[in-house]
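Page header: ASSEMBLY MODEL / three components / 1032 residues total.
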Amino acid sequence: MSMLNKRKVYDITMQSLTYLSSIVSIVVLLAIVFFVFQKGYRLISWDLITHNYQSVTYTADLKEDQESGTFISTKTFDDGSFYSTKWGIAIKDDENLIGGTSVFITYVHPDSPLNALNNKGVGIEDLSVDVDYQIIRVAFDGASSALAIHGAEHMIEVWDSQDSFRELEFSTTGGGIRGSIITTLYLIVLTLIFALPIGVGAAIYLTEYAKNNRFTRFLRQMIETLTGIPSIIYGLMGLAVFVPLTIRLTDATGANIISGALTLTVILLPVIIRTTEESLKVVPDDYRYASLALGASQTQTTFKVVLPNATAGILTATLLAIGRIIGESAALVFAIGTAVKDDIRLTEKSTSLAVHIWSMMTDEPANIELSSTIALIILAIVLVLNISIKLLSKRMLRKQGVKK
Amino acid sequence: MKKLFGIILLTLALTLSACTNAEDTFDETKNITVYTRDTTSGTRAGFMEGIGFADAATNDSLLVEGFVIKDNTGIMTSMTTDQFGIGYVSLSSVNDTIKPLSFEGVEPTLANVINDTYGLKRPFMWMVRDAGDYSSETVEALVNAFVAFLGTTDAQDIINNNGAIGLNATQSWDDIKANHPVTQQDNTGVVVRFGGSDSIQKVAEALTNSFTSKAGNFTAEHDHTGSGDAYKRTQDPAIKDTSVGKDVGFASRYFKDAEKVGVETSDFGQLAWDAIVAIVHKDNPLNNVTADDLKKIYEGTYATWSDLLD
Amino acid sequence: MQHVEIPVIKQHKEKRIKDRFVKIILLSFTLLSSSFIFIVAGTILVKGVTPFITNNNGLGSVSFIPFLTGDTWLIGESFHSNLYSIGFIIASTLMIALLSLVVSFPIGVLTALFIAKVAPKKLANILRTVIELLASIPSIIYGLFGAGIILNLVYNFSAAIGYQSKGGNSMLASILVLAIMTIPTITSISEVAIRSVDKNLEEGSLALGASKTQTHFKVVLFAAKSGIFTSAILGIGRALGEATAVSLVAGGRRSGYSFDLLDTTSTLTTIMLEGMKETIGLDYDIRFSVGIVLIVVIILTNIILNFVKRKVGNVNVK
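Prediction written out in full:
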């Protein structure tokens, strides 16, 4: 009976260790998600995702025939807005898309002279202010300007004390991350197009075709050593090798999305090859021998019998790869650059979501809230991709008749 | 399941005990934990020069043993945790989670920097390429117009609006724009590349946002990587013509002598000041420091808080 | 009847040609994959060797042995001195990577076991998705989490045991952050390996009278050795190569060998990260030299781990 007791003790210890470890993992990982969520959910909005990063600024002054007057309004502004009867405009302090405070326009009186402004810059001649535009500053002749940093109340006070203004600078909303999202999607597609064939192909060669000799071991070793190299070094290699390469082959003039995808391919190869190899190794040899015995060629055996059975592992590799692509920032800082763009072209600089985070974090002061928001968006994208790939693969496997 | 429960309780107990807060009274016998930026930081250069410890700007071996290196945000968040730490940040980062210290009796406010009574500050500088060294004449004319813009009241407004301190200007852009006819034409599609210090990124982007609307809507491309790159990417022959070259570079410190070699005096200048503030944890009883105090703290002569507070 | 055989032979020949063709393509993919390490190493070698063999614009060349064994990052002013050394950094890097693997490996593997064998199917699927999600969080966010939460924990923990830590910035914080980052990698890959273990082995063990737990630990884990080891190799690879996250919690130690868990530290990657902005001069090139040392460390670790793996043997491998 003491044997059974010993075994019971052993069983219980190991079981509790297993449960404990899983709880620790889950608690810690959930803590991270919770942390990111708590910091970032406030700024999530459809506007953030769809807007351009660049806000468009307009400089305007009054048209010749317009002037200030008295624009009484019976509206009550109880949301913190301040109204100027002289100019017929209501403004308030509010949070902009990236978490900073700006002065927003909340109401414009229909007769206000601000509806017919003259554009001091080049382009369309007539401008008008509108609700939700942000006022940056109002400049006067003979008085110091009213700046947004001093708040809406101060701005209304100064504005009311003046009879005319030299120029009004206002802007449309900016700070959106649409460009970065599009860049990230391009990167994922391009990198997978490059990396999957090469990676899966190399894994197939190493498991199915290669003999187990020194040369093969050497090749494997060389591939594995790529895993530990810090991303910065890949970035530098991308800058030194892939950027000139793409400049020569396309009309790019600097770092671009294609060079970024090539750099990411190199980073991902070891992971893809390793995971694919592991899942290929597990396919029982019986399948291979049976197929060959039935007269199939090596190629047919590999691609029609072995590979479908290893699909689960290859999918895991793909998902890990996508995760890495989306999360990679250090290498891309060098290989694609840090210029946030709205107009995305494959042969131009741009930022992926992770690099956008990097850009926000190296600001002074860093924008931790926005970084967390972008991280949440990243998680959402990965979740969607994850689920869709899994659903697709289930359907694909069912068609092929492979049991899972 | 009982076992599971027991384990969960145990872990909770451990974490709770670790989370108990520190004492209420400030323990003066503790060592001063010194926080600083790394040697490439313009803020560090400005700070060290301001306290009379200029040699330590790029030399780590002169600092007290055991300092902690963090970036701007890192120092801010560290001061919210570490009761016994001291660090320095740019004025635009200061908020109410930490305690800013007065310098030589003067409080660190924008007003005090403008009237020149607050002494701990660093310049924001700009540098451009040599005349004739641009990708096109339009770009060169736009850059010249931008430089002129930096000296107007409009630019100073934008600078002040973003937390830095603009220099005194007398003319507005309207007064001088006739000198720069390139700004009256349609410049959509013309790309001007800006780079340099990442501390200035916000101010630089605000300036270009404002200026593009006045200068024909050209495209301003921003890629900020550090103060050293202001010189390197506009003037250094080895780098300026590569794919990372820039047309305008910003630095958050004075240019070093090595960076002025072969550069025309009209190719660089100052656009603003930025104040540096020494900060401590909110529980710290300290309110004011002198330059000498800070120097002694950073070189290690003052090792514990009692050395300074008594 | 001869004309019946010819198509069959032709088919064989075609198959063989196709086979050889495919084999060549796959071989070229493999060769391409293996060659990247040389391209990467080449780029770094070129830059990284210059501090040792050139005069560095009048500063004098850096001596190799003091570089590898010294205890102060830089004596003197940057860009004005050639007295660099990283001995103490190499020591801390190894210690941090190993200790973080000591923490993350058991947790990761046991969690993988839990997901693959113990948990009910629905729960397992959810957990698997959660872990795959977490592998894609940018490392900066882990760094932020570290700076926000882990620093606090370490600070309070050290205050509770009576030691004044520097705001929590310490080797311990770095180890914890790295462990957290590597758990998803180890768990995913080990989980795939465990799931793929032949059911027959499991059933055989149970049939012989072993308990479920014994089967799990003595048979299944043993059979999935190869995959689990791979996960460890990839995990330590990530730990050795992580820069941004660690730089936010390490503290940036600049001198002195230290094995104190609660003291500030530096790793090879955080030292490289700092100087990457200024683009010429000795201060920049020396980062590449650090990079070379890092690659050597990684290669050595890989070789040692692979050696151990071969010694321990494999089950069910071709």
